[in-house]
Amino acid sequence: MSLKNLDNLVKTNKLKVEDFDQREFDGLVKSGKARLKDAKITTLSQESHNNTIDKTFKSQTATV
Questions:
Q1: Which end of the chain is more exposed for a tag (fewer CB within 10 A), N or C?
Q2: Mean pLDDT of 9-16
């Protein structure tokens, strides 16, 4: 999504601008690295991989 699209969502009150939060950013990076590490484990079942992807997606979209 482009910056112009995001600005339009702010103008229509469908999106709220928030200040940058370093702790939140660091937590997301840490979580992403852990999920990547898990994804490299070939002995995990497909279900485990899917659960990892689902959890990551939910945590990422909750912060947007």
A1: C
A2: 94
